[in-house]
Design brief:
By secondary structure, this protein is α/β, with parallel strands linked by helices. It has two domains: 239 residues, Aspartate Aminotransferase, domain 2; 96 residues, Aspartate Aminotransferase, domain 1 (Alpha-Beta Complex), CATH 3.90.1150. 38% of the residues lie in helices and 17% in strands. It has a seven-stranded mixed sheet with strand order 1-7-6-5-4-2-3, with helices on both faces. It has a four-stranded antiparallel sheet with strand order 8-9-11-10. A hairpin with a 7-residue loop joins strand 8 and strand 9.
């Protein structure tokens, strides 16, 4: 009953086997190996674009370095107020960009909306006295478990580009969003106007591997220097490449994401059936947000369930917590099972 985060799951056996295979023999260092070369080719094939790809170890450094390539130190990054880059990555984006400021937008129905961007641009202030927005960052799937459709991404990116902003996508759960939408990966990235994608594998079956994917190669100019300065030019980068090779092979990444999404859907149905419990956001990927009695949450945890309390401001505008209620978040992973959902329901009966 471990639903705290998809970070808590291990790695896919196929990914682990690829690491073992890459361990044999010698390969050139610092990403000049056959594994990284093949992984970059696979990513370009998956997205049907000649992308420039750089591999790093964490989502934080991926997002921070990507934004540093899009935004000068005196620039600003528009993002949702609870975006991971703003709420959960400390000051890393500011550090790696040399001081660029993250500017939180109020969500509309749980997402960044064109009207929020327009308001922020209209009130941005006057350079050089004020920070000027230079980039837009959106998360796919986002921090409330919602996915942006190709049409939504295109509308946001088009607005951003009209105002001279580059578009960054935090894709820590990109595979889950893609599995949910069932579209082509290009349709929610470069075809829709995304300039750089941080493609996360760590939450979905990799041991530790993230890819910074530049769809506009000009934005990757001198990026290797940023990688080196951040301590992310790994001597044995072949192990990054090996993970992505196995992860992408035969759509393994999507199979893993579908498993997580399917269990999340079943979990959402099960939670709604529990007394006093209601879902507050649609289950569109692998995150489930619910309001439940505080006593029920306590009972579930006493029976071994792991999930997080979530801040009240993440509720939809029409929702409010009543007495002795709390908002909680459940996250499923590729390792989650229907049996774990059944165990959670059984644990609830102890209340």
């Amino acid at each position: 009953m471990i639903f705290g985060s998809d970070n808590m799951a291990g790695a896919s056996p196929a990914v682990l086997q690829a690491i073992v295979q890459a361990n044999a023999g010698e390969q050139p260092s610092y990403g000049a190996d056959v594994w990284c070369e093949q992984a970059e080719q696979q990513i370009s094939q998956v997205f049907q674009a000649p992308a420039r790809v750089f591999f790093v170890s964490t989502g934080t450094v991926a997002n921070s370095l990507a934004l540093s390539a899009l935004t000068p130190p005196w620039g600003g990054v528009l993002c949702q107020r609870d975006a991971h880059v703003l709420a959960d990555e400390s000051s890393a984006p500011e550090f790696f960009s040399g001081g660029a400021r993250l500017l939180g937008l109020d969500p509309v129905n749980g997402k960044v909306a064109p009207e929020s961007i327009s308001r922020a641009l209209a009130s941005a202030g006057h350079p050089p006295h004020n920070v000027v927005p230079r980039a837009l960052s959106i998360t796919q799937a986002n921090e409330l478990g919602l996915v942006y459709t190709p049409e939504e991404v295109h509308e946001l990116a088009s607005l951003a580009h009209r105002h001279g902003l580059k578009v960054h996508m935090d894709g820590a759960r990109f595979a889950n969003a893609l599995a949910s939408l069932g579209c082509h990966p290009a349709d929610i990235t470069w075809r829709a106007g995304v300039d750089v994608l941080c493609l996360g594998a760590s939450k979905n079956g990799a041991l530790m591997a993230e890819a910074i994917v530049f769809f506009d190669p000009s934005l990757a100019q001198d990026f290797a220097y940023r990688l080196k300065r951040a301590g992310q030019m790994a001597a044995k980068a072949r192990f990054f490449g090996a993970q992505f090779c196995a992860w992408l092979h035969d759509d393994h990444w999507l199979a893993l994401a579908r498993q997580a999404n399917d269990v999340a859907g079943q979990l959402g149905v099960a939670l709604q059936a529990l007394p006093g419990t209601r879902l507050v956001w649609p289950v569109q990927a692998n995150e489930v947000f619910a309001v439940m009695p505080a006593r029920l949450a306590q009972v579930l945890r006493s029976q071994g369930a792991v999930f997080y309390d979530w801040p009240e401001h993440a509720l939809p505008a029409h929702e409010a917590l009543q007495h002795e209620e709390k908002l909680v978040r459940f996250v499923t992973s590729f390792a989650s099972t229907c049996e774990q959902v059944d165990d959670l329901v059984a644990a609830a009966r102890c209340s």
